[in-house]
Structures are given as C-alpha cells and as structure tokens.
Amino acid sequence: MRFLIIIFFITTLFGCNTSSLSKAYQSYTTAKQNYIQSILNNNKKQKISSLKNIVECGKFLGFNISKYKKELIKLDHTKKKKYNIHSYKKVIQPIKNPLKLESKYIKVISFYPLKIKLNSKMRVKYLTLIKNNKHYKIFDIYNAKVNKKVIKKISQNIYLIIAQNNKNKVRVVLYNKNRFKIKYSTQNKYLKVNFFDKPISKYRKPAPIKRIPFRQKIIVIDPGHGGKDTGGIGLYGIREKNIVLPIGLDLKNILEKRGYKVYMTRDKDYFVTLPNRTKFANRHHANLFISIHCNIIRGDSKVHGPTTYFLSPARTARAKRVAKYENRAIGNLHTTNQKIVLNFLNKDRIIQSDKMAMDIQRNVVYNLRKYYRNVGDRGIRPAPFWVLVGTQMPAILIETGFLTNKKEALRLNNSLYRKRLAKGIANGINSYFMKNR
Ligand SMILES: [Zn+2]
C-alpha cells in the first residue's frame, strides 16, 4: 500500500513522462486507466490528477485532448493549492560561453555523491518540500532532457528520482523520511550534490532479481451473478448462478494444485455488484480476471457451444445483445460515463485479453471434445462487458454454454462435465502464461 502511495505521488509530482514518445504513450495509457478507475470509484481527486496527465501527455503526443481539457477545467476551477513548497531558492545564473551542438540531455556521472553533467543553456532551480512526512530536495533543470527515468536508492536512507517533468524540464528529487542536509553547486556545467548519509555498503550482495514463475500468478475467478441475481434461467429451470459457481470452484482447485494463487469474487450463493468484482481483482493485483457465465438464447434451441469474450469497445449486434444482458447489474454508472470508459480502453490490455481468450477457448473446446461428441465452438469475440472494463489486468468472460440448448443444459448440469470444462480453462491459462510471462 505504501508503495502504491509513493508511486501515485511520483506520478502526480512528475506528471507525464515525456522523455520519449513511448514513455509518454505509456504515461498516457496509465493516465487513462487511472481515469477509468476514478470514474468507477467516483474519486474527484484521482479524476483531476489523471486528467492532468492525459492532457499533458496528449499535448506532447499531439493527440486531440480538448474534451479532457474542458472537463479538467470544469473540475479543477476550485482547486488551486498544490504543494506546500517551503522555499524557492536562488535561480542559478547562466553559465558563460555557450557552445553550439551541446547535448540537450543531462548525463548522470555518479550517484554518490550525485554529479550530473549539464550544458550551458540549462538553468537550475532548487526547492524543498515536506509532504506526507517525507523530506524532498528538488532540483528543476530547465532546457533539459533526460534519456531514462531513474528511481534509485543512492545511500542508506536517501532515494533519488530523475525524470522528465515537462517538455523542457528535468526534475531531480532526493527524498528521505527524515530531515536531511545537502550541499550543492552548479559550477563548470555540473550539478553536484553532497548529502550526508552513509553509502550503501559495497560488499552487500545485490538481491537476486526474482522472476515470478507463471505458476505463482494471481488469478481472480468471478462466477457470475449470485444471490438475488439468478442470471439466466434455462431449460429444466436450471439457473446460471448455480452452474457457474461449481465451475469456478473446480477451476480454483485445479489452479491451486498447479501452484497459482487464486481468489474468488464469490464462493457461495450471494450477490456481488459488478464494480465490487473488479475492485476485488484490482485490490489483489491479479494477473488475470476470468468471469464465468452461461448463455441463454430464446427462440433458437439449436445454438450451443462455449464462447470466450475479451474486453473491447467493439459493438457487434451479437456482442451487444450478450453484453446488454450481462451488464444489467452495473446500475450505478451513467451512460455518458459508460461511453467515456469505453473510449479509454487500454490497447495493450485488449491485446493481452484477446490472446488469453484465444488460449482458453481453444483449450476448453479441445478438452471437452476428448470426452464428448458434438461440442460446439463459437470462438472468441470482443465485447464491451462492464465487469471487464474496470479491471487493470487482462480480463476475459467465458460463456460456458447455452442453457437453452437441451444437450448442453444437461451437460452443464453434470458435475463431471463441469470439471472437464474447468480443466480446459486451467489448461488455457497455463498455455497463456507459458507464452506470456
Ligand atoms: Zn451471466
């Protein structure tokens, strides 16, 4: 949690990372994700800060951001006070004898003490601030660029961040939870900062970089509906909520045996709102969110077979029909907000969800066809499901079959069939993480 707060503060402190186009694009998509979250959380502060980053990054990237600017102005007009800046100290005079063809980029020569190479056009401003019980020493270097963002512990207690703050300004931040002293100079085109803290011991082994094996991935399983929300009611009065729960529990068992960490949005027959399902997944930092459902189609009892949906703004008539049905429980999100959220979907996440959907669909059908005849395959489809929109990780929704098809309704009502189906899903998840670690 503390880590999250720091990250949040860093991103608000630095705004958009404009050190390169791809970094800026990354900041832009992160800001959009935060914006979606802010709408779902109804959090004004988060909304404003994410809009600011969208506007700044958008400007840098040359995107049309007038809409967001307008909304930002509307939201932000009351709020003026920003940081509790203690002191704005002297502006250092320009260094004489400017040379042509100097690099616009600063260069870090050393970290302990901190030594940064400047060029003759760069100007340095120094300020200090205390925020959330942390002490910050900030150097704003104007007319400067930085190649790569730096976040680093440079002594036993002091952290350093160097990042592009806006198009022409690099921000160098030293911070510590205790009060600390520094001495700095900007002579001979160097920014030198001496700080009074012990160096990190040279003899300590660096911590090995941990690669999380795919088996330790975190999966959130979301059996649809529950409690007062029965979901679809099919032939023989079979209720969707009662089919998807055991599939979810079977899937959990299989995944846990394979070493995954699994959480369930519900493990009994109770109602959970859609926003709470996605919040749950975000809170557990899941690597995959998988929502399990059954399909219903009135007037065509022949239609059968599983379909895997991945989040996308695509609105084909068929996807819309299913989405409309599954989206009912959202309730508290206005249509205008729904539109905003859909336009903000993160491309990268869509691609990952698409891949995941493909692996799962393929494995489910393959596994079922080993045991059963005439297993349908309705493939993968994009759809604007709300339960998928709010999540920050690849998210898919599987419609395991049609409760309005006699054969499939009976199969889904059978525990062995459900176990085999769950195994197919688990194999799909494995297959995805083997390829995309
Ligand atoms: Zn459903």
Q: Explain this structure to me?
A:
Helices cover 38% and strands 22% of the residues. The longest helix has 23 residues, at 347-369. The radius of gyration is 27 Å and the shape is elongated. The chain starts with a helix and ends with a helix. The relative contact order is 0.11. Helix 2 (21-41) packs antiparallel against helix 3 and helix 5 (240-257) packs across helix 12 (415-435). The chain has helices at residues 2-14, 21-41, 44-61, 66-76, 240-257, 274-283, 317-326, 335-343, 347-369, 386-389, 406-412, 415-435, and strands spanning 85-91, 107-110, 114-117, 123-131, 134-142, 150-153, 159-166, 169-176, 182-185, 190-195, 218-223, 261-264, 288-295, 307-311, 380-383, 395-402. Mean pLDDT is 79; it is low at 1-13, 79-91, 93-100, 202-212 and 329-337. It contains 12 helices and 16 strands. The protein has 3 domains: 2-76, no CATH class; 85-195, Immunoglobulin-like; 214-435, Aminopeptidase, CATH 3.40.630. By secondary structure, the protein is of the alpha+beta class. It binds zinc ion.
Which consecutive residue ranges, at least 5 long each, have pLDDT under 50? 1-13, 79-91, 93-100, 202-212, 329-337
Rg over CA atoms: 27 Å
Oligomer: single chain
Please provide the ordered H/E string of secondary-structure elements.
Answer: HHHHEEEEEEEEEEEHEHEEHHHEHEHH
The count of strands amounts to 16
Classify the beta-strand content into a percent band. 15-25%
Q: Within the CATH hierarchy, at the fold level, what is the topology of the largest domain?
A: Aminopeptidase
Number of helices, where a helix is a run of at least 4 consecutive DSSP H or I residues: 12
Strand arrangement within the widest β-sheet reads 1-4-5-8-7-6
